[in-house]
Design brief:
With 407 residues, the protein is an alpha+beta fold. The chain is built from 14 helices and ten strands. It has a five-stranded antiparallel beta sheet with strand order 6-5-4-3-10. Strands 7-8-9 form a three-stranded antiparallel beta sheet. Strands 1-2 form a two-stranded antiparallel ribbon.
């Protein structure tokens, strides 16, 4: 199918998808919402590559800096862990993070004393605020004892078996590079975790639950709705009975019941939400198919000998794509809200995996204190993402109404 547009004395044919995309791009609100969603999706995909804390689940806890205010600047000394840490490639790190080969220590100040560095811990009182670390221990993972060859040179074996002989001055230069000032843009939570990192990885969870659950709902809803609307009769009665039964159960309660049956976890919550969202799609698809099954092009397809499944999925469903897309946009927003609600109740995504709902649950007690932003920030993130999809659904509804439109 295509639409004809007159350009001076020529006519050109454009597909409905081309016309729709062109109108969406030229719609200011639609273009802005698309840019926002592309930006959010890019953040979710890059994940650990752009988070300040790139450890798995952004779960590096530094209790000394817990409940630090936004834009706090704290000096961090990175001390090499005395164990071998596997370094992964960039794609693995992007998806799953990278274990930190260093142990971060928050400090107020430091100074060197012969072959050691003295660290004065951040926000600690004597006698627990001073820690003495050998320079070689700070810079390398050491195997065995460190031998002093002279007042200015020492030797040691690293975990990988290599022998090193270095001067104190060299070790001091390397140690200085591992003492840097870290800025916590959104502060830290009560466990000393970076809030910005948790928020970015939580974006991945929210978008993932939307995509996966909506995909599951589309598979079930479109198929059952199309079959019921096209064949009618007893098939329609049975499917409508199932739809009405599921429809009569409150969505959140049904999701909770399915979650208990499948167990709590990352993928289980996607399936649970997807199995409750297909009803809306099935009802709308059924009604649309009923109206189209009597059209002339469907009768012509039957006369030409096309199979019923071919007529349904190649001739009828492409004509109701616009309606389905609008519902999908609304369902995407509903899926994000449902996941956040379940995580807030403790039966959604489980710690240590960060989720916006979990962040609100862990920090809602601080709303009456000076740290209300810990719960407000993920709440605003949920609100903006849901609003973005709802507004996009309204724009798509107008853009997809292209009957009789000329360009």
């Amino acid at each position: 199918m295509g639409l004809f547009f007159q350009n001076k004395t020529e006519y050109k044919v454009q597909s409905i998808s081309q016309v729709t995309w062109k109108r969406l791009i030229h719609n200011r609100q639609g273009a802005f919402l698309l840019i926002c969603l592309v930006f959010i999706t890019l953040i979710a995909i890059l994940g650990y590559l752009i988070t300040p804390d790139s450890t798995p689940y952004a779960n590096e806890q530094l209790l000394e800096v817990r409940l630090s205010k936004p834009f706090s600047q704290i000096k961090i000394a990175s001390v090499r862990k005395n164990q071998q840490v596997v370094q992964h490639n960039i794609f693995y790190k992007m998806l799953f993070g990278q274990a930190n080969p260093f142990q971060p220590i928050a400090i107020d100040k430091y100074w060197f004393k012969k072959d050691s560095v003295i660290l004065q811990r951040y926000n600690e009182v004597a006698p627990y605020n001073i820690e003495k670390i050998h320079l070689a221990d700070m810079v390398f993972p050491i195997k065995g004892q460190i031998k002093s060859l002279s007042d200015s040179t020492c030797s040691f074996f690293t975990i990988d078996g290599s022998y090193k002989q270095m001067s104190i001055n060299e070790l001091q230069k390397l140690a200085k590079k591992q003492i840097q000032t870290r800025t916590y843009i959104l502060g830290t939570d009560r466990y000393g975790r970076d809030v910005l990192s948790q928020l970015i990885i939580g974006t991945r969870v929210s978008l993932s639950v939307g995509f996966v659950s909506v995909f599951i709902a589309l598979l079930i809803g479109v198929f059952l709705g199309a079959i019921a609307g096209y064949y009618r009769g007893i098939i329609d009665d049975v499917i409508m009975w199932i739809i009405n039964v599921v429809w009569s159960i409150p969505t959140l309660l049904l999701v909770i019941a399915i979650s208990f049956a499948l167990g709590t976890g990352f993928w289980q919550i996607f399936i649970a939400i997807g199995l409750t969202m297909w009803v809306d799609i099935a009802r709308v698809v059924r009604g649309q198919v009923i109206s189209f099954r009597e059209k002339e092009f469907v009768e012509a397809s039957k006369a030409l000998g096309f199979r019923n499944m071919t007529i349904i999925f190649k001739h009828i469903l492409p004509n109701i794509t616009g309606t389905v897309i609008v519902i999908v946009a609304a369902n995407f927003a509903s899926a994000i809200l449902t996941e956040a609600s379940l995580s807030f109740l403790g039966i959604g995504v489980q710690p240590p995996m960060p989720s916006w709902g979990t962040m609100i649950k862990e920090n809602y007690g601080y709303i009456i204190l000076d740290y209300a932003y810990l719960a407000i920030i993920p709440g605003i993130a949920i609100m903006l993402l849901v609003l973005c999809f709802m507004l996009l659904g309204n724009v798509l509804r107008d853009v997809l109404d292209i009957k009789g439109e000329n360009n």
